[in-house]
Give the backbone structure.
Amino acid sequence: DIQMTQSPSSLSASVGDRVTITCRASESITNSLNWYQHKPGEAPKLLIWAAFNLQSGVPSRFSGSGSGTDFTLTIRSLKPEDLATYYCQQSFRTPFTFGQGTKLQIK
Amino acid sequence: QLQLRESGPRLVRPSETLSLTCTVSGGSTNRDNYYWDWIRQPPGKGLEWIGNVHSSGDTYYTPSFRGRVTMSLDTSKNQFSLQLMSMTAADTAVYYCARHPAADNWFHPWGQGTLVTVSS
């Protein structure tokens, strides 16, 4: 199975900050990397698909980059409603696997 | 807009079989360009993909679940289901249903999830 490693596992940032979350695959997955936002009590939500494509309806302050093994989710100008846990997921090969999550807290 | 909702027991006894249903509204399960998936999250742990079912009836099960999982689709009811046999405490988790496009492998949308506890 392809292992996905996210860092950091948690972080605290202030409103207006730029936040970066990284995801590393155990082997090359080209651009087959997706990002999800999961707020407590809600359904997980697709943010970014195929490394850098913004899902319809997702604010433009979210962006994704990377290819091969290293990927980044960036939140430009953090808002209070961005409090959530963020997960990456590889869609290169079955079984599809997720990172362990990054819990984002607002200072 | 498409919505998914999981339903089923909240408590399952060890060794029993879990049966969950995902009801789809705002769209049809009878489309050959989508798969219907189950994903779970044990308490304090990450997300784990269990597998999926296609409108053709084809299924894929993650190797770690093969032998004790069955998924099926009932297009007449716009529902799909998960059966997981021989439940243990390690199967305690929030279970989510989701959809993914056949040509792409991301999950959207998801249901809100249902917590299933395995305990005697």
